[in-house]
Amino acid sequence: MTYPSRFFCLCDPGQVMRPVMCTRREKSSYTPPPAKYGGRHTVTLIPGDGIGPELLNHAQELFRFCCVPVDFEVVNVDSSLTSEDEINNAVTAIRRNGVALKGNIETNHNLPPSHKSRNNLLRTSLDLYANVMHCQTLPGVQTRHKDIDIIIIRENTEGEYSSLEHENVPGVVESLKIITRVNSLRIAEYAFRQAREKGRRRVTAVHKANIMKLGDGLFLQCCKEVAAGYPDITFDNMIVDNTTMQLVSKPQQFDVMVMPNLYGNVVSNVCAGLVGGPGLVPGANYGKDYAVFETATRNTGKSIANKNIANPTATLLASCLMLDHLGLHDYASMIRKAILRTLSETRLHTADLGGQGTTSEVVQSIMKEVQKGGPLTSEKI
Amino acid sequence: MSSMMILLVLKCLSQIIFYCICFAFQMQTVTIIPGDGIGPEISTSVIKIFEAAKVPIQWEERNVTAIKGPGGKWMIPPEAKESMDKSKIGLKGPLKTPIAAGHPSMNLLLRKTFDLYANVRPCVSIEGYKTPYTDVDLVTIRENTEGEYSGIEHVIVDGVVQSIKLITEEASRRIAEYAFEYARNNQRNSVTAVHKANIMRMSDGLFLRKCREVAENFKDVKFTEMYLDTVCLNMVQDPTQFDVLVMPNLYGDILSDLCAGLIGGLGVTPSGNIGANGVAIFESVHGTAPDIAGMDLANPTALLLSAVMMLRHMGLHGHAKKIETACFDTIRDKKVLTKDLGGNSKCSEFTAEICRRVQDLD
Question: What positions does the domain Isopropylmalate dehydrogenase-like occupy (chain A) (predicted)?
Answer without folding.
Answer: 42-366
